Amino acid sequence: MLLFGGPDLRMADATPTTQESALPPLSFARRWWEKARTSLFWMVVLAFALRFGWILIAHTYKFRTNDNNFSFGWEMGRIGHSLAMGP
After folding, report:
1. What percent of the chain is predicted at pLDDT more than 90?
2. Which of 3, 34, 35, 73 has the most other CB atoms within 10 Å of its CB?
3. What pTM did the predictor assign?
4. How many domains in the chain?
5. If you write DSSP's letter for every residue of 7-36 in order, what string do you get?
6. 27-59 tens-digit pLDDT
7. Residue-level pLDDT at 35
């Protein structure tokens, strides 16, 4: 007996019950996800896909030029703009 009166599962017999054997096998997607969620390769691929998707959705590749390129590189953007425009 355990502390709270439940059955002691360590003493139970190791053969599966009818309920355990009646469980359906895991689907292909579920088995793939079980492996992929801990795989470094798939973590990197998923992170890249999410970042790339955000770039496309939010249009973060477009820069506003109405503030003298301050949004692109802040001070360096202004220096680059000044150098490109000349004296």
Report:
1. 16
2. 73
3. 0.44
4. 1
5. --GGGS-SS--HHHHTSPPPPHHHHHHHHH
6. 888 888 888 888 999 899 999 999 999 988 988
7. 84
CA atoms of 75 and 68, how far apart (whole Å): 10
- Give the C-alpha separation, 83 to 76, whole Å: 10
CB 17 within 8 A of CB 24: no
Does residue 32 sit within a domain?
yes
Range of the structural domain that residue 68 is part of = 27-85
- Do residues 73 and 67 touch, judged by C-beta distance below 8 A? no
Give the C-alpha separation, 23 to 27, whole Å: 12
Contacts of 77 (CB under 8 A, 6+ apart): 68, 69, 70, 71
